[in-house]
């Protein structure tokens, strides 16, 4: 009897191992299929997994890509897999896909839980597309096309008619690095919310040196008029280096935070993105994306060709054995100096004779790109031309 029991356990373990191997093989094939379909999952959401349920492999998950969805469904059918992949957006958001950020800085995460990695941020007034709701979380896409999950307290979902009404309201930008909006037109009254640079505010009235604003979730708040500015920087569609650098230098000493894109804390790409955003330019989210756009600056014979406002990229150049890997970006100040977020926002130099020179950055230099004069909609676009912002900015 004991021998039979051992034999039974042996075959049970073998069956389990076979199922695990089968699941692993299918998962590998699906990963390859998705890689063929989607170049960048940061801007083309697709999260799919393979499991085994009562001996039957199952493909589950979600994607926003119709071609990827069709390819996965065909694969599952041909390989005898159960198929439970959702094509997003959900029906709730297919007709009314919009949301607006309601807090000064909204953290966006890789999954629908607070312990998940923070992948980026969006600031107050930013329009987002909503694709799915899970519990108290929403899967959203930001104007730079980045996907992530946000706690429902950070956005207000809007119907198309509500967005049309929101669009008619006068808009101003908060121009200080940090500040507050108040419950009344009195700086001694209770604080209604904190604010950061470039929060986009909707004005419904003016009184006693204050703008009366309404947040997307319906709260009312009063902001000092002299702490706000109009949208001329955006509508003029003209950006010059000295203005971008002036904004960048206001961030000096601000702590580094992975995923940060606001005056509170920034990562390297979030920092350069914020400097340009103040003057109406939307850059890609990550350094590895930003390095693909703009005019390539010839630095083969040295760094004298760099100009103020150029982006300088660092990481690892491609070799016969390794792919290129861009991991860091800074903003050129001129004279081979660059300002960047590494530990904190600070200034270094590529000039070996400078006291700000660090060998690490010269060894890791990959390339430079010129943004000014190259805002053409191909990876670098004006805020006022962005399809998301067109939903909220008055015409």
Automatic annotation (TrEMBL):
It comes from the Bacteria. Residues 1-20 form the signal peptide. Keywords: Hydrolase, Protease, Signal, Thiol protease. One of its GO terms (molecular function) is cysteine-type peptidase activity. Gene3D superfamilies: endopeptidase domain like (from Nostoc punctiforme), SH3 Domains. The keyword Lipid metabolism does not apply. One of its GO terms (biological process) is proteolysis. Pfam families: NLPC_P60 (PF00877), SH3_16 (PF18348). Transmembrane segments: none annotated. Residues 238-372 form the NlpC/P60 domain. SUPFAM superfamilies: Cysteine proteinases (SSF54001). Coiled coil: none annotated. Belongs to the peptidase C40 family. This is NlpC/P60 domain-containing protein. It comes from Draconibacterium sediminis. The lineage of its organism: Bacteria, Pseudomonadati, Bacteroidota, Bacteroidia, Marinilabiliales.
């Amino acid at each position: 009897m004991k021998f039979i029991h051992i034999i039974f356990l042996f075959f049970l373990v073998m069956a389990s191992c076979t199922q695990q191997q089968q699941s692993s093989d299918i998962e590998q094939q699906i990963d390859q299929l998705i890689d063929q379909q989607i170049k960048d999952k940061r801007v083309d959401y697709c999260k799919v997994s393979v499991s085994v349920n009562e001996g039957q492999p199952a493909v589950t998950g979600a994607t926003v890509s119709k071609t990827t969805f069709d390819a996965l469904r065909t694969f599952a059918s041909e390989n005898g897999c159960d198929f439970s992949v959702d094509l997003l957006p959900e029906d709730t958001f297919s007709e009314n896909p919009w949301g607006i950020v309601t807090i000064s800085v909204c953290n966006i995460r890789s999954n629908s839980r607070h312990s998940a990695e923070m992948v980026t941020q969006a600031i107050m007034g930013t329009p987002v597309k909503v694709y799915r709701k899970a519990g108290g979380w929403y899967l959203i896409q930001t104007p730079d096309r980045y996907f992530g999950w946000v706690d429902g307290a950070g956005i207000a979902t809007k119907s198309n008619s509500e967005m049309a009404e929101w669009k008619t309201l006068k808009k101003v930008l908060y121009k200080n690095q940090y500040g507050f909006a108040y419950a009344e037109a009195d700086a001694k009254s209770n604080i209604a919310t904190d604010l950061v640079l470039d929060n986009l505010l909707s004005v419904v009235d003016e009184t006693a040196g204050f703008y009366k604003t309404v947040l997307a979730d319906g709260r009312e708040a009063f902001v000092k008029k002299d702490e706000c500015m109009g949208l001329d920087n955006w509508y003029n569609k003209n950006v010059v280096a000295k203005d971008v650098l002036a904004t960048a230098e206001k961030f000096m000493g601000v702590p580094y935070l992975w995923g940060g894109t606001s005056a509170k804390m920034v990562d390297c790409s979030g920092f350069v993105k914020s400097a340009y955003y103040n003057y109406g330019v939307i850059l890609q989210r990550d350094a590895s994306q930003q390095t693909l756009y703009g005019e390539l600056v010839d630095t083969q014979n040295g760094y004298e060709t760099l100009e103020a406002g150029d982006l300088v990229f660092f990481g690892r150049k491609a070799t016969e054995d390794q792919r290129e890997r861009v991991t860091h970006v800074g903003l050129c100040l001129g004279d081979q100096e660059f300002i960047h977020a590494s530990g904190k926002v600070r200034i270094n130099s590529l000039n070996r004779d400078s006291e700000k020179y660090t060998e690490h950055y010269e060894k890791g230099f990959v390339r430079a790109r010129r943004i000014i004069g190259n805002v053409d909609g191909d990876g670098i676009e004006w805020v006022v031309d962005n399809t998301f912002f067109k939903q909220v900015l008055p015409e």
